[in-house]
Specification:
It contains nine helices and 58 strands. It has 1011 residues and is mainly beta. The strands form 13 sheets. The protein has a 22-stranded antiparallel beta barrel. A five-stranded mixed beta sheet has the order 10-15-16-13-14. It has a four-stranded antiparallel beta sheet with strand order 3-2-5-6. A hairpin with a 5-residue loop joins strand 47 and strand 48. The longest helix has 11 residues.
C-alpha cells in the first residue's frame, strides 16, 4: 500500500478519536477511555481488512502486516461490519461487531484451503474465527464494566449515574448522608473520578459526586474499578467515564416520558426510638410514612448530518420535575417541621463532530446541568409521650435554590504523520450555588433548646446562611502525543485542571444564636465548655454560639506521563507506564498552603491471550494512585474561622424573642474547642512540612474465559492498600512536650501546644514536622516522630474476589451475575468518616487526638462481606420484553461509641483534652473495637420491568412499567453509633437508632418513541 493510501486509511478513523490514544501494533491494542479498537489476524500478509461503521459510514481499510495481523485503533464506539478483501474482492465478513468504550475486539480470519506454490494461503475459502459474540478483550489490563445505551434502555435501573455504577462489581452504596454517592473497592465516597467526553466533572468542592447530563444522551458508560493506565489519575476509588451520543448520516428523532406516581409508592418505614430506658422508648422519632414523592420527566433528542460524512449534530434535552413532602424528626422543627419540595431539573446537551479535513478533527460538546428547587416550611409537631402529630398550614419559611451551570468541551485531533498523532482537549465548567431564604429577617435571633422539657424553646427559621454568591468552576486541558514504532506504542502526555470554589456560611441574624441545654446530675463542668462550670439548681444553662468562615479557594492539579504498550508477541501484551503528579491547594488569599510535587506513580499491566484466540485471558496489573485534597479542605482548615460558645446561667426567657434574661457568665468568655477565634492561620502553618498526598497501591490478578459462544466467566483478586492519607490533628500535648524537652519555657510550650491544637493537616501514623507560631509571628519548626505524636499507623486494606458469569446478547436475551467476597479492614475509612456521616473531607474527627484511635482497628463502614448483583433482559418477541436487576448485600458493621474511660490515669486527658461526647471506641467504660457489635441486616432488592412495543408502530413505540424493590424490603442502611450520653454508662435516647432505611417500592411508567 502506498503512503498516500495509508494516510487516507488512518485519517478516516479520526471522526471520534478518544482523549489520549493508547495503541500498540500487533494483535491487541487497547484504547484510551473514549474510544475502542478492532484487531485480529488473517494468516497472510498483503490482504486488506475493511472496517465500516454501520451508522455513520466511517470506513477504515487496514493492510495486514508481515505476519498477517491488523489493528484498527481509535474507533468511535458503535457497530461495525468487518470484512477481509483481496484485489477488491470480499472474501468474508463479520457484521455487527460492537466496539465498546476503552475496549478492543478480536475479529480474526482463517483459511480452509491449502497454499499456493509460493507458500501463500489461498484466501478464497476464508472464514471468521473471532466472532461478534467474542467479548473477551485481550487488549485491556484494567478492570471495567461498560454499559451501552441499548442496555440502559432495556434494564430497570434508575436514571442516574450512581444507579448504573452500583451495578458494577466492587461498588457499594455509600452512607445515606452522602447522597448519590458510592464506594468503589473499599474507598470512601470522595475518592472517585468522573469524566464526560474525556473531561473531569468531579465535584471540585467536596469530591463527592459529579455533574451529569440528560440520561438519554449517554452513549456508553464505563465503570473502572481498578488498574487504569498512566494517562489518568486522581482517584483511589473508581472511575466513571461517559461518552455521549453523536450524530450519524441518518436523521433520527426521539422522545420519552416517565412517571413515578406517589399513589403506587409504598409507605416509607417510620423511624422509632430504641428501647434505652428513656421516656421516648418506642415512640416514633420521625414519621416517614407520611412522606410523599411524585415525579415525572420528559425529553427529546435529534441527531443527524448537517453535512453528510463531514459535520454531525446530536442534541438532547430533558426536564425532571418532582414534588416531595417530608417531616422533621422529634422533638425539634415544630415551626418548620413539615416541608414541601418542588424540583425542576432542566438538562440539555449538544454535540458537534466536524471533520474539517482528513487530518484535522474538531469536537465540541455543551452540557447544562441545573437543579432548581423550592422548599416551603410549615409547622409540624409531635405530641409529648405519644405518636400523635399535628401540622399547620401557614407558611413559616423556605428557600429557593439554584445549583448548577454549563460545561463546554472542545477537542482537536491531528494526524501529523502516519505514525504520529496529537490530541488536545480543553474544557470549562461554571456552576452557581444560590440559596435565597424566604422571609428572612436579619433582626431575629435563632434560638434552640436541647433540654428534656415539654415545650422546648424554638425561635427563628434559619440558623446558618450560606454565602449568597457561592460557585464552583473548573478549567483544564490535556495534550497527548503518540508515536508508533514497531511493536511499541509510545505515549507521552500532559494534563492540568484548575478548580475554584467560593463557599462558606455565617450565623444568621446579628451573627450569633442561643442554645439552651442542661447539665446531667452530678456533672461539675459543662461538657466541652473549656472550663465553664455547671450552674446549680436544675443545671439549665444557655450558650451564645457564633460561627462564620469561608472564602474563595482553588486547587491546581497537573501531571505528565510516559507509557509504552509493548506487544511482545501474538499472545503477550505488556503495558509499562510512569506518571508524575503535582497538587497545589490555595487559601482565600491565593497563597499555597499545601503542595505535593513529584509524586511518581508507576503502572504495570500485562495480558496473556493463553490460546491466541481471545477465548481465555489471564491479566494482572499493579499501580500507585494519588488523590488531591478538594477545595472544601481550605474552607475549614486554611480560612479564617470563628467558632465559639460562651456559657451563661439565666433567670428567665423572653416569651417573644426566646432570648435569655438575667445572664451570669459561667466561664472566662467565648471558648472554641478547636481554638477558632476568627484568625486566619499562617499558610505555612496549616499543614505539616513535606506533606505527602493521599495515595494507594493496588494489585490485581484475574482471568476471563469464553466457555461457549453464549457464555463467559471470569474472576479477579484485588488488593488495595492505602499507604498515606491527609487528615487534621488537634492535640495540644505533642508540641507542648516537645517544647519542654527542648528546654523552652512553660509559656512558650503552652503557645506552641495551643497552635498545634488549632487543628493542622498532617499524614496520620507517620513522623511530621510542623511550623508553629511562637506568639510573635515567628514560625518554629517542630519535628515530631510517630511515637511523639502517639497515633497508630494508618491502615485501610481492601481485599476482594469478584466472580462473574455473563451471557452476551444473542438477539433473544442477555444476563450477567456477579458475586463479590471482600474484606475492608483498618482504622480509617479514608477522606470521610461514615461512622458519624462527617462531611469535612480530609478533616475527619478520627485523628484529632490519639485516644480517638484506641480500638479503631476493625471492619470499616464500607465493608460488605458478600455482594451479589444480577441484571438482564429477555426478548420474547419484537413486541414483548421482560427485564430484571437484583442486588443482595450483607450488612454494614455496627459500632458502639462512647466516652473515654473515667479513671485516675485519664483524668488529665478527660479534663483538658477529651472531646465531651461519645466519640471513642468504648461503651460503659469497656473497649468496643470497631465493627465488633455485629452487622446490620442484608439489603435485598429486586427490580422488574416489562416492555410492550406494538407491531403496528413498527416497534418504535415502547410502553414500559418498572417496579423497583418489588418486595418492598426496607432495611436499615445505617444507625446511630453513639451508645452513651452524659458520661460512661449514661443512657442515650438515640443509641442504636436507625438513621435511614432503604427506599420503598416504587413504580415507574415510561413511554418512548424513536424514528
Amino acid at each position: 500500500m502506498s503512503k498516500a493510501t495509508l494516510n487516507r486509511t488512518v485519517r478516516r478513523s479520526a471522526l471520534t478519536v478518544a482523549l489520549g490514544l493508547c495503541f500498540a501494533s500487533g494483535m491487541a491494542s487497547a484504547q484510551s477511555n473514549a474510544a475502542g479498537s478492532i484487531f485480529g489476524t488473517t494468516g497472510e500478509p498483503g490482504a486488506t481488512v475493511e472496517i465500516r461503521n454501520v451508522d455513520t459510514g466511517l470506513t477504515r481499510r487496514i493492510p495486514t502486516d508481515s505476519a498477517g495481523r491488523y489493528n484498527a485503533s481509535a474507533l468511535p464506539t458503535g457497530r461495525y461490519d468487518v470484512s477481509i478483501q483481496r484485489e477488491g474482492r470480499v472474501l468474508a465478513t463479520q457484521p455487527d461487531v460492537e466496539v465498546t468504550l476503552g475496549g478492543g475486539r478480536d475479529v480474526s480470519f482463517s483459511s480452509d484451503g491449502g497454499s499456493s506454490a509460493g507458500g501463500a494461503v489461498e484466501l478464497d475459502r476464508v472464514q471468521v474465527t473471532g466472532t461478534a459474540m467474542t467479548l473477551i478483550d485481550v487488549s485491556s489490563t484494567d478492570t471495567r464494566t461498560t454499559f451501552t445505551s441499548q442496555q440502559l434502555e432495556k434494564l430497570p435501573v434508575g436514571r442516574s449515574i450512581e444507579s448504573v455504577a452500583l451495578l458494577a462489581p466492587g461498588v457499594v452504596q455509600a452512607d445515606s448522608r452522602y447522597p448519590n454517592a458510592a464506594s468503589f473497592g473499599g474507598s470512601s465516597a470522595s475518592e472517585n473520578a468522573f469524566y464526560i467526553n474525556g473531561y473531569a466533572v468531579t465535584n471540585p468542592l467536596t469530591n463527592l459526586g459529579s455533574s451529569t447530563l440528560p440520561f438519554d444522551g449517554i452513549s456508553q458508560m464505563q465503570v473502572i474499578t481498578g488498574g487504569y493506565g498512566a494517562e489518568f489519575g486522581r482517584a483511589t476509588g473508581g472511575v466513571v467515564n461517559i461518552v455521549t451520543k453523536r450524530g450519524g448520516n441518518e436523521w433520527e428523532f426521539g422522545g420519552q416520558l416517565t412517571y413515578r406516581p406517589n399513589s403506587l409508592r409504598a409507605d416509607s418505614r417510620d423511624i422509632y426510638y430504641p428501647f434505652n430506658g428513656t421516656p421516648n422508648d418506642g415512640l416514633i422519632q420521625q414519621k416517614r410514612s407520611v412522606h410523599e414523592v411524585d415525579s415525572y420527566s420528559y425529553g427529546a433528542s435529534v441527531s443527524g448530518p448537517l453535512i453528510k460524512d463531514r459535520l454531525f449534530l446530536y442534541a438532547s434535552a430533558e426536564v425532571e420535575q418532582q414534588d416531595q413532602t417530608t417531616v422533621a424528626a422529634r422533638p425539634g422543627g415544630s415551626t418548620n417541621g413539615f416541608r414541601q419540595y418542588y424540583y425542576d431539573i432542566p438538562r440539555w446537551m449538544a454535540k458537534l463532530d466536524w471533520n474539517i479535513t482528513d487530518d484535522h478533527i474538531v469536537e465540541l460538546t455543551a452540557i447544562s446541568d441545573v437543579t432548581k428547587n423550592t422548599v416551603d416550611y410549615f409547622p409540624y409537631s409531635y405530641a409529648a409521650g405519644s405518636n400523635d402529630t399535628s401540622r399547620g398550614f401557614e407558611k413559616t419559611g423556605g428557600y429557593t435554590y439554584r445549583d448548577g451551570g454549563e460545561l463546554y468541551i472542545g477537542k482537536y485531533t491531528g494526524y501529523l504523520t502516519d505514525n504520529l498523532t496529537l490530541t488536545a482537549v480543553y474544557g470549562e465548567q461554571n456552576q452557581d450555588h444560590i440559596a435565597d431564604p424566604f422571609g428572612y429577617d436579619p433582626s431575629i435571633v435563632y434560638v434552640t433548646d436541647s433540654r428534656p422539657v415539654g415545650n422546648p424553646v424554638q425561635r427563628g427559621t434559619y440558623a446558618q446562611l450560606d454565602f449568597p454568591d457561592a460557585f464552583d468552576e473548573t478549567k483544564g486541558g490535556r495534550l497527548d502525543l503518540e508515536w508508533r514504532v514497531g511493536d511499541h506504542a509510545l505515549r507521552v502526555g500532559y494534563d492540568r485542571q484548575d478548580s475554584t470554589s467560593r463557599a462558606g456560611e455565617v450565623t444568621s441574624g446579628p451573627g450569633y444564636r442561643w442554645i439552651y441545654d442542661r447539665c446531667a446530675p452530678g456533672v461539675g463542668a459543662i461538657p466541652g465548655g473549656g472550663g465553664a462550670v455547671c450552674p446549680g439548681g436544675n443545671g439549665d444553662y444557655v450558650s451564645q454560639y457564633k460561627y462564620a468562615n469561608g472564602g474563595t479557594f482553588s486547587v491546581e492539579q497537573s501531571a505528565y506521563y510516559l507509557e509504552d504498550r509493548w506487544q511482545i508477541n501474538d499472545q503477550w501484551l505488556l503495558s509499562l507506564g510512569l506518571r508524575n503528579e503535582g497538587f497545589q491547594n490555595f487559601n482565600a488569599d491565593g497563597v499555597v498552603y499545601a503542595e505535593q510535587k513529584n509524586q511518581w506513580a508507576p503502572r504495570l499491566g500485562a495480558t496473556w491471550d493463553v490460546f491466541g484466540d481471545s477465548s481465555l485471558k489471564v491479566f494482572a496489573n499493579a499501580g500507585r494512585y494519588h488523590l488531591a485534597m478538594p477545595n472544601n479542605v481550605a474552607l475549614r482548615g486554611a480560612a479564617g474561622s470563628l467558632y465559639t460558645q460562651e456559657y451563661f446561667s439565666f433567670t428567665g426567657i423572653d416569651p417573644t424573642t426566646g432570648e435569655p434574661l438575667g445572664l451570669t457568665a459561667l466561664g472566662d468568655g467565648p471558648f472554641s474547642a478547636n481554638r477558632e477565634y476568627g484568625q486566619a492561620p499562617d499558610p505555612q502553618s496549616v499543614t505539616a512540612k513535606d506533606l505527602k498526598s493521599h495515595y494507594q497501591d493496588e494489585f490485581v490478578l484475574g482471568f476471563e474465559k469464553r466457555l461457549t459462544d453464549t457464555l463467559n466467566i471470569g474472576a479477579r483478586y484485588v488488593h488495595r492498600d492505602l499507604k498515606a492519607a491527609i487528615d487534621d490533628m488537634c492535640d495540644y500535648r505533642p508540641a507542648y512536650n516537645w517544647a519542654i524537652g527542648q528546654g523552652m519555657s512553660e509559656d512558650m510550650a503552652d503557645q506552641l501546644g495551643n497552635e498545634l491544637a488549632n487543628c493542622r493537616l498532617f499524614n496520620p501514623g507517620q513522623s511530621n514536622t510542623f511550623m508553629l507560631d511562637d506568639g510573635t509571628g515567628k514560625l518554629v519548626e517542630v519535628a515530631l516522630s510517630a511515637d511523639q505524636l502517639g497515633f497508630p499507623k494508618l491502615k485501610r486494606m481492601y481485599q476482594g474476589i469478584d466472580m462473574f458469569v455473563e451471557r452476551p446478547f444473542d438477539g433473544k436475551w442477555y444476563g450477567r451475575l456477579d458475586y463479590t467476597l471482600s474484606r475492608n479492614y483498618g482504622n480509617a475509612e479514608g477522606q470521610l468518616k461514615s461512622d458519624i456521616g462527617q462531611g469535612d473531607v480530609s478533616q475527619t474527627q478520627d485523628w484529632d487526638h490519639p485516644e480517638l484511635m484506641d480500638y479503631s482497628n476493625g471492619y470499616l463502614p464500607n465493608d460488605r462481606r458478600h455482594y451479589v448483583k444480577g441484571y438482564g433482559f429477555y426478548q420474547f418477541s419484537p413486541e414483548w420484553r421482560v427485564s430484571a436487576t437484583a442486588t443482595f448485600a450483607s450488612g454494614r458493621p455496627k459500632n458502639c461509641m462512647g466516652y473515654y474511660p473515667q479513671t485516675p490515669e485519664n483524668d488529665d486527658f478527660n479534663e483538658n483534652y477529651a472531646y465531651a461526647g461519645p466519640y471513642y471506641f468504648y461503651c460503659n467504660g469497656e473497649p468496643t473495637p470497631r465493627g465488633s457489635q455485629g452487622r446490620l441486616p442484608w439489603t435485598n432488592k429486586v427490580d422488574l420491568g416489562v416492555t410492550y412495543a406494538p407491531n403496528f408502530a413498527g416497534n418504535a413505540l415502547e410502553f414500559s412499567v418498572d417496579v423497583f424493590n418489588v418486595f418492598d424490603e426496607q432495611v436499615p442502611q445505617n444507625r446511630i453509633e453513639y451508645g452513651e450520653l452524659g458520661g460512661p454508662g449514661g443512657p442515650y435516647t438515640h443509641a442504636g437508632r436507625v438513621i435511614s432505611y432503604s427506599n420503598p417500592r416504587t413504580v415507574r411508567f415510561a413511554v418512548r418513541y424513536s424514528f
